[in-house]
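Thread amino acids onto this structure.
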């Protein structure tokens, strides 16, 4: 290698770096990061509790047999039934024979009564002319009264058999879906044996248990928020039920829900107020930057530079969180893009930023 050429590669690399740096400087460097902001504002928040609940059907019953017998048919699981439609049938041969028997007895007693009625009318005519027929008339009238009584007994027994026959069909008392076959075709049942479980999916509500303190802030008809894994909504309080265990100091809340999109058995969270609403300085929860050293937000100054500010939080309600110290009303805080910011860094505020913070009426409660 010739003298004076030993540092040529290094010189070339340095030259390239200088040119690249000059080019970057000439172009103004990388663009400032884009962020979305909102203004911190005074907002009315209501401290809430988030309670576990379950979506249940208001009509969920185990339908039982009312007569003894062998099951001849049971509806399949998943079958959708209408009110009055049979969900199971019990063998009815013996009862059918009994019905025929009592129909014959009723017909016999009816014929006997009709005969005695005609006989009474005939003897009454004779009694007007013949004193001897008077005693026979009295006996026939007595027989007629007895026949009428026997007729009533026979009809009552026939009615009982017809009721028993009707009960060999276990019918749906409301429209619903068969969710369980407790007994199957061919099995023997006695009175009171559960055969199928029928659930009405179109008449549902949420059941949850809340502390007694919340009872001061809700009443029948109060709209409460229900939060599921994939959807959320509101429903009115249908009932407030005292809970049996007095030591727990809980009461049961039942919230009426529409059948769509909720499903029976779904686990949900119920948002229940725990104190009176108060006016606080609040920002969206997305503005918080959580680090080991504490909680902070990025405030955007008038010259569009980012300033990291340590804040103290208070009560939360849904997407909003109270700020008790660190920023003031009107401060612009970052809600998107804060994870890339550094102290004093220039930013580009997006023009489609959300509107300023307003009261969030549909949120669940939490306290950080």
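Threaded sequence (368 positions):
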């Amino acid at each position: 290698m010739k003298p004076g050429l030993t540092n040529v590669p290094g010189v070339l690399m340095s030259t390239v770096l200088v040119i690249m740096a000059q080019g970057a400087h000439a172009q103004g460097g990388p663009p400032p990061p884009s962020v979305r902001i909102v203004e911190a504002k005074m907002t009315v928040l209501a401290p809430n509790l988030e309670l576990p609940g379950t979506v249940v059907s208001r009509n969920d019953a185990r339908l039982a047999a009312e007569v003894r017998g062998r099951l001849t048919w049971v509806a399949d699981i998943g079958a959708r039934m209408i009110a009055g439609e049979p969900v199971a049938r019990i063998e009815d041969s013996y009862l059918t024979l009994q019905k025929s028997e009592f129909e014959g007895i009723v017909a016999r007693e009816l014929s006997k009564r009709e005969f005695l009625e005609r006989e009474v009318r005939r003897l009454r005519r004779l009694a007007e002319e013949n004193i001897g027929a008077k005693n026979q008339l009295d006996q026939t009238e007595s027989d007629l009264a007895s026949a009428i009584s026997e007729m009533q007994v026979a009809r009552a027994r026939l009615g009982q058999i017809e009721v028993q026959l009707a009960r060999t069909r276990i019918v749906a008392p409301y429209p619903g879906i068969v969710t369980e076959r407790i007994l199957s075709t061919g099995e023997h049942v006695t009175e009171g044996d559960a055969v199928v479980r029928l659930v009405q999916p179109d008449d549902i509500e949420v059941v949850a248990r809340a502390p007694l303190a919340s009872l001061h802030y809700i009443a029948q008809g109060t709209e409460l928020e229900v939060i599921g894994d994939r959807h959320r909504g509101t429903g009115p309080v249908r009932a407030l039920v005292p809970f049996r265990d007095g030591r727990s100091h809980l009461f049961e809340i039942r919230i009426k829900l529409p059948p769509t999109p909720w499903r029976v058995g779904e686990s949900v969270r119920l948002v229940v107020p725990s104190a009176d609403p108060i006016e606080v300085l609040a920002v969206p929860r997305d503005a918080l930057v959580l680090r080991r050293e504490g909680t902070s937000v990025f405030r955007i100054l008038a010259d569009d530079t980012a300033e990291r500010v340590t804040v103290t939080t208070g009560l939360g309600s849904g997407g909003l969180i109270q700020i008790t110290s660190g920023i003031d009303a009107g401060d612009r805080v970052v809600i998107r893009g804060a994870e890339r910011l550094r102290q004093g860094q220039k930013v580009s505020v997006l023009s489609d930023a959300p509107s300023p913070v307003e009261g969030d009426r549909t949120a669940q409660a939490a306290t950080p």
